[in-house]
Design goal:
This protein is of the alpha/beta class and 217 residues long. 39% of the residues lie in helices and 11% in strands. A four-stranded parallel beta sheet has the order 2-1-3-4, with helices on both faces.
Length: 217
């Protein structure tokens, strides 16, 4: 807003696409990818197979931030997981865990980490896991390294069968969703949703201030 004010009346208008965690064009590709990944595991061990949904960890203080939208990060990811799980007709238990943590170790971030969770599952008798990165839209570096390298290596060390579901990437349904979200902002276009959680397009000025560090004004 400040940058546009500095430019003046001729400044371009900047509009954000709305949140899409429960859009069919996002849920659908994740659902099909989960089915494909499940088919790669040994069906004879299905009774001891578990689904793990992952997303990028963030500081706990950010996840629990005050304001009208505080706490929505985890809630929306849980809703995406439920929608994908239900649409995949999976009869398996599932968990939402975290990956890609960074920052100082003394700062609390959302847990458990996917690698720690794999160790816990192995101790409880789980034999196979399928990991679905529902917090991501493409197979970028963090997905490839954290899941296809580190988590896969952890699973191998534990003797777990392991399959990783793909992200939407260039799936035509996901691409069409982006087009539809643009049309929602620029023309009369129906809003497609599968979930029930509140979503929003824009935040009012000052609704999400950056947390101040201790000892600083």
């Amino acid at each position: 807003m400040a940058a546009r004010a500095e430019v003046g009346p001729g400044a371009p208008q900047i509009l954000k696409l709305r949140q899409f965690h429960d859009h069919p064009g996002f849920v659908g590709p994740h659902t099909d990818a989960l089915r494909v990944a499940l088919a790669k595991l040994d069906p004879a061990r299905r009774a001891t197979t578990r689904i793990i949904f992952t997303a990028h960890s963030i500081p706990v203080s950010m996840a629990e931030t005050a304001g009208p939208h505080g706490g929505r990060y985890t809630a929306q990811l849980e809703e995406t997981a439920r929608l994908v799980h239900a649409a995949a007709a999976a009869d398996l238990p599932w968990d939402l865990v975290w990956q890609s943590r960074s920052g100082p170790p003394q700062v609390p971030w959302l847990e458990p980490d996917v690698n720690d969770h794999l160790k816990m599952l192995a101790d409880k008798g789980v034999t196979d896991v399928v990991v679905s990165p529902i917090g991501f839209v493409s197979d970028h570096l963090e997905v490839l390294w954290d899941l296809d390298n580190e988590a896969a290596e952890t699973a191998a060390e534990l003797g777990l069968g392991y399959a990783r579901a793909a992200t939407p990437g260039i799936d035509p349904r996901f691409v069409a969703m982006v087009r539809d979200l643009v049309l929602e902002r620029t023309a009369e276009h129906p809003r497609e949703r599968l979930g029930t959680l509140p979503i929003w397009d824009v935040c009012p000025a000052g609704c999400c201030p950056t947390p101040q560090r201790k000892g600083r004004p």
